Amino acid sequence: MARRWISERRTVKVLLEPRGAIVAFTMKTYSYLFFVTHRFVGFKKIRTKDRIVARAGYSAPQALDLIAELYPAGPG
Question: Could you tell me the pTM of the whole model?
Answer without folding.
Answer: 0.75
